[in-house]
């Protein structure tokens, strides 16, 4: 017996308690797997980069090429600012520059994972998916990013297809 | 999307040709004569201040010098709205401002021989240069990043402070020429869009 269909409008979280068996006698969209449900829920992304040019490019790229995945993008220009936002807003993904003054991307990631910021970040954000976006993308550096808790590294200049793969992989891994 | 082939066609004759000539009246200024025979590194470019440089009137001359990585630059153009190039144009002009400010900061850091700051500034400008596809500027920024860390151009072997100072002085002049070349190309490109 097929499972009752659940339908969630784009942009809103899935509602497993809602189900519609049929509409006007036609078959409804059948979404049985959690992954399919998640595909309707777009994510909230934070971009962290101290370079305004890079911020403009990446936010525009998400706006133009990732509307199927990204619901909302927030930009911050430092690790300190990122931690402040994470104390009050929930995010699904952080695209993190590495070489920034005061707090590097690695230091910011460690502060998130260990929740060592002056203002404690929201519990949800402690395990937020983080992808490094950087020109510092050698093998040793990638290993360091992995060790501190980043799920992937995308090289600058950004190839949209590689960014998409990294985001999909990160979201799958974070469940 | 305007790629290499399309940008080349735009500059074949007509008003665009005039725009190219006017923009290229601005000569790349001469710079310090770099020092040769620096241990363990390639010789920097030799610049003859007295030599006349032929103005480039054909966009192909720009392209042959590898100023722009068109794959990257075309990706930026793809993010423009169909009707205009306002996004990429404003981005490029913001980059010009950023680069000019960064060069000023580099000059100040050089006066103080603040190598860590020079390295940081090199890395900073490398990122945005790479994002716009400005290949030569990006590569020079990467060298500055390494020299500022007292490493060779590849970032592997250590160099002395004196060597770093010599290399950086020559590199800053070279970087400025490369930036001027890229700036000229981009201004010609966007002038042709109007």
Automatic annotation (TrEMBL), chain A:
Name of the molecule in the record: Sensitivity to red-light reduced protein
The lineage, from the top, is: Eukaryota, Fungi, Fungi incertae sedis, Mucoromycota, Mortierellomycotina
Region (Disordered) location: 1-25
What are the entry keywords?
Answer: Phosphoprotein, Two-component regulatory system
Q: Repeat: is it a keyword of this entry?
A: no
**Which CDD domains does the record cross-reference, listed alphabetically?**
REC_hyHK_CKI1_RcsC-like
Organism of origin is Linnemannia hyalina
Q: Does the keyword Phosphoprotein apply?
A: yes
Ranges of residues in domain Response regulatory: 44-171
Superkingdom per UniProt: Eukaryota
List, alphabetically, the InterPro entries matched.
Answer: CheY-like_superfamily (IPR011006), Sig_transdc_resp-reg_receiver (IPR001789)
Q: Which residues carry this modification: 4-aspartylphosphate?
A: 97
What Pfam families does this protein map onto?
Response_reg
Q: Name one GO biological process term.
A: phosphorelay signal transduction system
From TrEMBL, chain B:
Query: Which residues lie in Acidic residues bias regions?
Result: 53-64
UniProt-recorded name of the protein:
HPt domain-containing protein
Listed PANTHER family: PHOSPHORELAY INTERMEDIATE PROTEIN YPD1
GO molecular function, a single term: histidine phosphotransfer kinase activity
Q: Where are the transmembrane segments?
A: none
> Which positions does the record annotate as the modified residue Phosphohistidine?
123
Q: What does the entry give for GO biological process?
A: phosphorelay signal transduction system
- Keyword annotations: Phosphoprotein
Checking PROSITE patterns in the record gives: HPT
Q: Identify the stretch(es) annotated as Disordered.
A: 1-64
* GO cellular component terms, semicolon-separated: cytoplasm; nucleus
Q: What is the lineage of its organism?
A: Eukaryota, Fungi, Fungi incertae sedis, Mucoromycota, Mortierellomycotina
UniProt biased composition (Basic and acidic residues):
40-52
Per the record's keyword annotation, is Phosphoprotein included, yes or no? yes
């Amino acid at each position: 017996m097929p499972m009752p269909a659940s339908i969630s409008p784009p942009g809103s979280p899935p509602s497993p308690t809602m189900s519609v068996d049929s509409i006007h006698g036609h078959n409804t969209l059948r979404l049985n797997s959690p992954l399919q449900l998640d595909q309707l829920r777009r994510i909230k992304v934070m971009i962290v980069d101290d370079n305004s040019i890079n911020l403009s490019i990446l936010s525009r790229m998400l706006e133009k090429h990732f509307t199927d995945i990204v619901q909302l993008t927030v930009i911050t220009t430092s690790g300190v600012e990122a931690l402040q936002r994470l104390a009050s807003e929930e995010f699904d993904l952080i695209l993190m520059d590495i070489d920034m003054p005061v707090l590097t991307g690695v230091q910011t990631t460690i502060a998130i994972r260990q929740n060592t910021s002056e203002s404690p970040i929201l519990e949800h954000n402690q395990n937020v998916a983080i992808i490094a976006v950087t020109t510092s993308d050698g093998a040793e550096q990638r290993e360091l990013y992995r060790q501190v808790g980043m799920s992937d590294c995308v090289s600058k200049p950004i190839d949209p297809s590689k960014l998409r793969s990294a985001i999909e992989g990160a979201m799958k891994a974070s469940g | 999307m305007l790629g290499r082939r399309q940008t080349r066609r735009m500059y074949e004759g007509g008003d665009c040709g005039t725009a190219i000539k006017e923009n290229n009246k601005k000569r790349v200024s001469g710079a310090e004569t770099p020092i040769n025979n620096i241990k363990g590194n390639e010789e920097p470019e030799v610049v003859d201040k007295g030599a006349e440089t032929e103005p480039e009137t054909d966009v192909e001359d720009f392209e042959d010098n590898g100023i722009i990585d068109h794959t990257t630059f075309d990706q930026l153009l793809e993010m423009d709205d169909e009707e205009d190039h306002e996004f990429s144009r404003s981005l490029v002009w913001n980059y010009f401002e950023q680069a000019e400010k960064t060069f000023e900061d580099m000059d100040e850091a050089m006066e103080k021989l603040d190598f860590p700051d020079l390295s940081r500034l090199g890395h900073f400008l490398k990122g945005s240069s790479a994002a716009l596809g400005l290949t030569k500027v990006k590569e020079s920024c990467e060298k500055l990043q390494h020299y500022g860390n007292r490493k060779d151009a590849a970032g592997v072997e250590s160099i002395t402070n004196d060597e770093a100072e010599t290399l950086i002085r020559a590199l800053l002049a070279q970087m400025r020429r490369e930036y001027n070349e890229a700036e000229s190309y981009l201004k010609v490109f966007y002038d042709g869009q109007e």
